[in-house]
Amino acid sequence: MCVLLATKKFSEREMELYEDLNNCFGPLEQKYRAEIVKLRKKGGRPNKRLFSYVDCDSYVNLDEESRTLTTCPSEGPSFLAKNMTSVRRRNIGTKVDRRNRPGGFAARANPVVVHETETSKTTAHVVNIPYKTMHVMADLAPEGKTENNQEDEYVLFSVKIDANGQILVKPDFNGEMPPYRIETCNDLREVYEYTVEHCSSQMTSDQREQEFKSFTELYNRHALYLASQVGPGFDPVPDLGVLRMNIFGEIVSAKGFDYDGLYVHFFLDLPQKWRPTDDPVLSGVTQTCLTKLEGEDYVAHFSFPFDFSLVYQEDEDSDDFIHWPTLFLEVLSLDSWERFRTEGYAYITIPNKAGSYNVEVNTWRPIGNGTCPDMRRFFIGGSPELEDPTYPQKPAMADEKVLSKYFFRTAASGSVTVKFHIMQQCQSFMDSRTKKTRRTRTILTDSEE
């Protein structure tokens, strides 16, 4: 029997079912009834055993959809599995549990994908791809049985076509493999053998060339459509000797501080040869956040995003190493009595490689001499603070090679967690792919290309 894709073939049970007008509730059943009436006038079914279910039929192959997780003989599909199956198909006919049907085709195909393709990758990494299914069935009722039941219907093979245009046949075409076998569940325990062959004619060279041209035209048209939707607003590759860096960050949380109502003031300090591209604002303040006890520490979750777009341009014939930007943090607190306190200072040097980073930095705060600063901090608010916010790293006005902070009194405070997502763009990245491996100095660092 030769079956075309998505072609409906009626079984004897369906013909008896849809001939009764009382069983035709919708337009699909009425359409089937009209086709069955025409088929009866032509002499009935050409094949008494084989028929098919198409995607719009109320049929689900539970042998395929429901898979048991244990070896218990009484295990069946769970309540969730049955309802999820009903979501994928509007109506589900009553089916016998797969434990009551030991017969079925033997798995002869290797489930491991040896030669992986782009289509198989797409299929494997998507949870649910829309597809249409067709089942070719066999009515294996014993000879002479007058009652037609679904228990005598067996799946010979299934054909699925998904949204990517991939056609799946299960079980696979026999080719040189032996025939598949089905054993019935009735008292006779009959055994049937069958083969699945690909009967479509091969495409000629002209047809393949025409199909290739059609797909090429379709892809080009789709690319033009995407380009019109996206627009030309992309930055070109920077000039030679110029590094563009985009920083997408987030001040995640702060923990271990003395007081509640925390907020963070931050700013980005740019060394020489660095400049912002568009927005010159390189600072910001988070929202005030109350702390929450998590484990042994009180944690304030900010989840405050920030982004900077920077450009670095080196001088010609310059051998100086790049000084990377520094993010300075100042943690403050504000309580219900509007008492401000400085909770801690810290700084983070921006990583010199593109990628994602999760950095937790410890902070410290300056303390005064004697007990008066501590009493003022506790009762009325206020505490010693830095006049120069860059002092945690190196003061901006310090010209000495060695800076001593020996007499500066500080106290350890909490910690701040910051996330960085860094993107870099430079022509030297493209040049390094074409050159042979050799020792050279790039715009970023001394490394082997």
From TrEMBL:
Source species, domain of life: Eukaryota
Q: Name the UniProt key words of this record, in alphabetical order.
A: Cell projection, Cilium biogenesis/degradation, Cytoplasm, Cytoskeleton
| Classification via PROSITE patterns | C2_B9 (PS51381)
For this protein, the record's Pfam families field holds: B9-C2
Q: Where's it found, cell-wise?
A: Cytoplasm, Cytoskeleton, Cilium basal body
GO annotations under biological process?
Answer: cilium assembly
Say where the protein is mainly found: cytoplasm
Identify the GO cellular component terms for this protein.
MKS complex
Q: Which PANTHER family match?
A: B9 DOMAIN-CONTAINING, TECTONIC-LIKE COMPLEX MEMBER MKS1
Report the protein name in the record: Pleiotropic negative transcriptional regulator
Organism ancestry = Eukaryota, Metazoa, Cnidaria, Anthozoa, Hexacorallia
